[in-house]
Design brief:
The complex is a heterodimer of chains A (416) and B (304). Chain A is of the alpha+beta class and 416 residues long. Chain A is built from 10 helices and 13 strands. In chain B, 65% of the residues lie in helices and 10% in strands. The chains are: A alpha+beta (416), B alpha+beta (304).
């Protein structure tokens, strides 16, 4: 009796947690463009000037500045990632001003050194003195001055130009602006005649490094060309999501009916466990802040298949043991022990496959691999260990001793 | 164990010859079809633009055709409230915006659009990445199974799963079904399922092998046949439940998932059948051709 209460308690708590978290989970789960509607562009970056090369740092900086730009202009919350050596993927789910976004994204990063000469106020830097292209590519770096403070050393291509600017703006601030945003406004201390300069006043090494990266990026702006765009109208996306969800619900109900009809008590336990699996996988994806797309759904379906299989293996094995005349508790133990190895080997091979795809793949293939790997891990928890716990409580409670509960007919049992 | 061998029962090992023949025929047709026609690559694999317009009212397809023709060579598929146009050349950004604005103004201001512009390189790269991923996975599976089982099981499992994947590719090639990025994902799913299905059956063969005295090939065939019979209910029920999911997706899921779920259905059926009719006989073949040299002393089975 205690065990039966324990079973009911475990199930009640599990479903309580699910019911409590489900609304937040369902609303918070991010759906990909192919399901929800939105916009995705894959850019290929090339150096804006001939003879330049793309460094990983430059690509990363460009991606960061793309994200900043989109945020500043309130066109939506973009997800910007770099891919390979020269690609940047921008995804914006939901409704966004597509035209504005695409226009915004394609501009190369615009680095300018400006002064306030002839401007309305001393903080209104309106005169462009130096541009990104005036700097030697990749030459900005962090150094330490005599006091051990971090400074940023820069080099320009035309030393006469720097000499002229620094002489004219002696003791005046020179603002460093990226895409019109003020990054720093150091004051010119001495005329700089040899084409190199140091920017002082860095608070930390981190800050200095950031500034050096910004200048390097500005010196080598990348030209972005659209390689692939996908845009899905919001209503179209919503419709396909509704259809897919409906398909999922119908499938779940049918699978549960089938499992309970065929496997009775173990089938009932399996239904609970598959449900928990779906919830937990959604939960992990939510915590990872992952976006669910079509490949993710594919991995999801595969996961359900493997989850059901784990349960079926166990139930079948138990049936075999019962038919061979074992008592219910020992049939349960033998069934759970013997089916375990097959289940673990099957999961292990799938983990190997998942990792292979993760390391070799990119984009959709990698997305599939991530969900697949998580689904295997969660499967081991929810459909290998959890059903064993639930079934053991039911079996050992002694309330379900009729063989019919396990899909075995009395006539099939052979004498031991 | 339940099933004692019974002559009247279906002999899977005998039937596997037919299965190999059918599989070989499809594979040969597939290779022919692939080398002559290739795959019917969709938008993801050929540069171009596809515009799907969902309209809120009926738009005459002749009018729409005339409208779209201004933007370049295209094929138009019209169904009630949905127009699907495929442009041979990728539209420029300007053209795309222009098309949307003008269409909304001219025909239907409640229209929504789905636009896909593709550079074929991306999809080809994905395809290549998926292939190398599967290759690496195959090597990994062989190594794992060599450690946990024996190498013959690993080799048989991998050959069988590659065969399943290739069967589905063949069928898509023969019937000229469109292959897109999602197809690649479907193949990956099928591979995962086939691996799971085969490993479980091999586990039972391995288990029965421990207590078996193998003297000749017939003993092996007997052992495998018994193992398959023991696992048969499970094979069918697992395949059925997973099929329920795939078929529901096929019937009730969105249009864009249709070919994807078709590939899944084919793969699930082939995967389940191959574990029995291809993978297991392959193992028998390897085991009898390359029999273990030093026979380990078989421990006397302890009575269960």
């Amino acid at each position: 009796m205690q065990r039966l209460i324990a079973f009911l308690l475990v199930v009640a708590v599990t479903f309580g947690v699910i019911a409590f978290t489900a609304p937040g989970l369902l609303n918070g789960t991010k759906l990909g463009l192919d399901l929800k509607g939105g916009f995705e562009v894959l850019y290929e970056a090339e150096p804006l000037y001939e003879g330049g090369t793309i460094t990983p740092a430059a690509l990363k900086q460009t991606a960061l500045s793309l994200e900043k730009r989109a945020n500043q202009n309130n066109v939506g919350e973009p997800e910007v990632t770099t891919e390979g050596t020269n690609r940047i993927r921008v995804k914006i789910a939901g409704v966004a001003d597509e035209a504005k976004l695409r226009e915004l994204m394609k501009r190369p990063a615009n680095l300018e050194f400006r002064s306030a000469e002839g401007c309305a106020s001393p903080t209104d830097f309106c005169k462009v003195e130096l541009m990104g292209s005036d700097f030697v590519e990749g030459a900005a770096r962090v150094e330490l001055d005599q006091m051990g403070r971090p400074v940023v050393a820069i080099q320009v291509k035309d030393k006469n130009k720097l000499a002229e600017v620094s002489t004219r703006l002696l003791n005046q601030p020179l603002a460093i602006m990226l895409d019109g945003e003020l990054i720093s406004a150091p004051v010119v201390r001495v005329p700089l005649t040899d084409g190199s300069a140091v920017i002082e006043g860095q608070e930390s090494l981190e800050e200095a490094r950031e500034l050096a990266e910004i200048i390097n990026m500005g010196a080598l702006p990348l030209k972005l060309t659209e390689k692939y765009t996908q845009s899905v109208g919001a209503t179209l996306g919503l419709k396909s999501l509704e259809q897919t969800l409906r398909a999922g619900v119908i499938a779940s109900v049918l699978i549960m009916i089938f499992l309970i009809g065929f496997y009775r008590l173990p089938g009932f336990v399996a239904s609970i466990c598959v449900f928990v699996y779906v919830w937990l996988l959604l939960g992990v994806l939510y915590l990872m802040d992952a976006t669910i797309t079509l490949p993710g759904i594919a991995a999801f379906v595969l996961g359900v298949g493997i989850a059901v299989d784990s349960n079926i293996l166990m139930a079948e094995r138990m049936k075999d043991e019962l038919r061979s005349g074992k008592s219910l508790p020992s049939a349960f133990r033998a069934g759970s022990k013997h089916s375990f190895r097959a289940i673990i080997d099957a999961h292990a091979t799938n983990i190997i496959a998942g990792f292979s795809l993760y390391f070799m793949g990119q984009g959709a293939v990698r997305g599939f691999a991530i969900v697949h790997l998580w689904s295997i891990v969660i499967n081991i928890l929810t459909n290998v260990f959890f059903p064993r716990l639930l079934l053991s409580l039911l079996v050992l409670s002694g309330k379900f001793s009729k063989l019919g509960y396990y899909g075995v007919k009395e006539s099939e049992v052979r004498a031991l | 164990m339940r099933s004692e061998y019974d002559e009247t029962k279906f002999n899977f090992m005998k039937a596997s010859k037919t299965a190999f023949l059918i599989s070989a025929i499809i594979l040969v047709l597939g290779v022919l079809s692939l080398s002559i026609f290739g795959l019917n690559y969709g938008i993801d694999f050929s540069s171009g633009t596809v515009v799907d317009v969902t309209t809120s009212k009926q738009v005459a397809s002749e009018d729409a055709k005339a409208f779209f023709d201004e933007y370049g060579e295209n094929t138009l598929t019209a169904s009630p409230n949905r127009l699907s146009v495929r442009f041979k050349d990728a539209l420029t950004e300007q053209q795309e915006l222009d098309l949307k604005t003008k269409f909304s103004a001219q025909f239907d201001d409640g229209a929504t659009y789905e636009v896909n512009i593709v550079d074929a390189d991306i999809a080809r790269e994905q395809q290549w990445k998926a292939l190398t991923g599967i290759a690496l996975a195959s090597v990994g599976i062989v190594i794992y199974m060599a450690i946990r089982f024996e190498w013959r099981f690993g080799l048989a499992a991998v050959l069988s799963l590659l065969q399943v994947a290739f069967l589905v590719v063949s069928i898509f090639s023969i019937f000229r079904l469109e292959v897109n990025l999602t197809f690649i994902i479907a193949i990956l799913t099928i591979v995962g399922y086939a691996v799971n299905d085969t490993v479980v059956i091999f586990d039972r063969i391995r288990e029965n092998l421990r207590f078996a005295k193998i003297k000749k090939r017939a003993d092996l065939e007997f052992l495998v046949n018994t193992s398959i019979w023991q696992m048969l209910t499970r094979s069918i029920t697992t395949a059925l439940t997973t099929l329920i999911a795939a078929v529901c997706l096929f019937i009730f899921g969105s249009q864009s998932l249709r070919l994807f779920s078709l590939a899944m259905i084919l793969g699930l059926v082939f995967g389940a059948l191959s574990s029995i009719f291809i993978a297991s006989p392959l193992w028998v073949f390897f085991r009898s051709k390359f029999a273990p040299k030093t026979k380990k002393a078989v421990k006397a089975p302890s009575a269960p």
